[in-house]
UniProtKB/TrEMBL annotation:
The gene is recF. Its main location: cytoplasm. PANTHER family: DNA REPLICATION AND REPAIR PROTEIN RECF (PTHR32182). It is found in: Cytoplasm. InterPro entries: DNA-binding_RecF, DNA-binding_RecF_CS, P-loop_NTPase, RecF/RecN/SMC_N, RecF_2. Belongs to the RecF family. The RecF protein is involved in DNA metabolism; it is required for DNA replication and normal SOS inducibility. RecF binds preferentially to single-stranded, linear DNA. It also seems to bind ATP. ATP binds at G30, Q31, N32, A33, Q34, G35, K36, T37. The lineage of its organism: Bacteria, Bacillati, Bacillota, Bacilli, Lactobacillales. Keywords: ATP-binding, Cytoplasm, DNA damage, DNA repair, DNA replication, DNA-binding, Nucleotide-binding, SOS response. This is DNA replication and repair protein RecF. It comes from the Bacteria. It holds the Pfam family SMC_N. It comes from Eupransor demetentiae. Residues 3-342 form the RecF/RecN/SMC N-terminal domain.
Amino acid sequence: MELKSLSLEHFRNYDELNLDFQSGVNVFLGQNAQGKTNLLESIYALALTRSHRTANDKELIEWQQSSARIAGRVQNRFGTIPLSLEFSKRGKHARVNHLDQSRLSEYIGQLNVILFAPEDLNLVKGAPSTRRRFIDMEFGQMNISYLHNTSRYRQILKDRNAYLKELQAKRTDDKVLLEVLTEQLVEFGAKVLYARQNFVQQLEKAAQPLHAEISDQSESLQLRYRSTVDFAPDASLAEILTAYANALQRQEQREIMQGTSLVGPHRDDLQFLVNDKDVAVYGSQGQQRTAALALKLAEIDLMHEETGEYPVLLLDDVLSELDANRQTHLLLAIQDKVQTFLTAPSLSEVARQLIMEPKVFQVKAGTVSVES
């Protein structure tokens, strides 16, 4: 899968921009605050209908403009598909092959991307919500059913929490609606748990050899999905359904007292073990970064395995955060495999030696020119 071209209208600091890309590595060079990250953000948003930097879509629209538009041509094994996404006060408007998409969940997956930014190096030691979001965003691109189930789960969770607050405030004592909402939460939540558990197992299998290679065979990596629902790693969907229902039943009075749902995928976490120790607690910064890098590289192969297409890789100023050894492993892993978009103030010596014939764009104050 490749992004052949990109067009922007009133997106961030770009009034109007049209770019064509090559199959290999495309490099955006420029100093800070010139618009390099905005370009990667636009590609990410074109793929996932949202920014990775803000939850407020209004921030994506150029100052004093009413809307922003991103368009691109995606080439996959079936042919070339035009995509477009518009942000306005009315919301988001997505098109595939010039046809309106009534649901954004049906649009996602047309362009698969993996973003690797400096903050992703904190994936291991960051907040649990960061790791949950990582699982949801990456697996959601690969599996439309998972995307649907997480969306339904979040809506039911919101409704259930609102009703728990009513029970907490004693504005009602009718538990019939709570039972209905709990039953629905279990139905979709169990599907999310089952899919996450399997995804983490697949991710671990793909990441382990990469991690061993980066650490010169001195360390082994394990991933563990830590759930608030007690179920075995090989549990069936039916077993998880039963375990989840029992867990909610045991917590019902506490949930009413606190006015919120205490059990489920929204409370879960992903744990990284290096040589059987929790690397977030006991690992060095180098070990944490190696684990994060192995995870990101594993995503590339896993997404190819799940979808039949390699994703587009977005590297946002990440090389400056990696030492020469990790830079080498990253660049060798992507060589001749995935189309890559890379931002940097300048290319390191390692990058200049390993990146074969990049297409270089100079970015300055919202203007982009191709380097000859």
